[in-house]
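Most newcomers find our protein records easier to grasp once they have seen one. To make this concrete, we reproduce a full record directly below:

…
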Amino acid sequence: MSGSPKYSTVTVAPAYARLEAQRRRAREAQRRRQRAQRENERAEQAARRAAETTARRERARAGAARRETELANRRAAREQAHVQGVRQEQAAADARRLAEVRQLLDRIRAEESEVRALRQRLAELEAGVGRAEDVGGAIEELRGRVVVLGRDGDSQGRDADQGAVMAGLESRLAVIGADARAQDPQGYQNCVDLLGELRTAARPGAETRFRALLGTVEHALARHAATARERAAEERRRAERAHEAERAAQERAAVLEAAGQAEAEAERERLAATFTEAEDRLRVVRGPVEEAANEARELSDLELAERIEAALAAVTDRLAAGAAPEALRAVAALEDLLVGAEARLDELQLAYTRRMDLAQALQDAMLGEGFAFTGGDDQDGRLLLNFERPSGAMYRTTITTDGGGTPLLVYQVDGEPDVTLRPEPDGAVCDRTEDLLERVHEAIVVRDGFVPGELTWQGKPPGRQARQVPGAGEWRWTR
């Protein structure tokens, strides 16, 4: 016989349906256990990451505290160095002022006891300068005493030695020093001018003018020294304020830098934690994902296999690129895909098992009718079975499913002589082949729990009567 393929849809008997439901429940339970195991692994990894993060943060806090302590120590050292420098400058200034007082004291012509007392006080102040004590006020008080004592002594010898007086005054201006000249240039110039006038008055007959100018010169020298000292002190205060402002600016900059470093470190830590989480979650799911892709190929769902492989590649590519947030999103999508893929694979596996069971039932039934099994194959979700009758007729049988998932038997018969072609509308009749396949179907129903439906083909004549297949609850069309 040769002709168009013959088709028969297959339903399952209640017993097989119950067996299949039991298999489905078993696979669902297995999947739940697998998902629970993966969830446990992810939870363990999350706990480990949290512990590592806590340890890193503790180390970071300890490091920050250590750096803060080091910064405070450096600030204290700088402050101490600055204070020490200020004290040294002040001590040097005090030493210069005491040297001026000593020079003034050396020129005094007065009672020995009075001079001795002033020298003793001078020695005490010099010792105080060596101990870095604040003796500025005491120096000025001593200077005043020396000036008063010197003025009293000079009043006795001004007329006799105007030259010595001039030399003493010029020496006092020199002792005040170049620093004072820079601090109070106007006062210095005033002193120079007054000394010039006093030198002009140092001649016979101008004693009154000389004595009058002498007090003015002494006052100008004292004022010049005091002004220079005050301006020097003001400069020191300005320098101190500038130092304080600079130190405050440095501290603010240090705080901002530390904040920026902390923020950058937090961002690096967040990205590192995200990257590690993506790696850990991929490590948990990678094996099941690869198994699912392989199973999808084995069950001939190439589209599903390619989707799984593409999702896996999306994760590994982003990890290789160091794109932590994108990798984490990709691995989450992969996890979701795996759940749906496993459900799909369960149904594919049940369908495959159903086809295999149906193939075994068909093979047993065909052998029972005298057929010889000559081989088979599994191609793209279809089972191909080849049988041969003793007459040499070949029956190529395909077990597949229709669009709704219902099993379908397709027979391609070559070599049977019972095909009679009649003019339409009667159609083509395959009496003996149809009877043979009906018997095969009846055997399948009786023994294996599958119920093949009506056998049909293109050109089958209408109006054929139906007969019930024993135990099937189905009807078959007969002549």
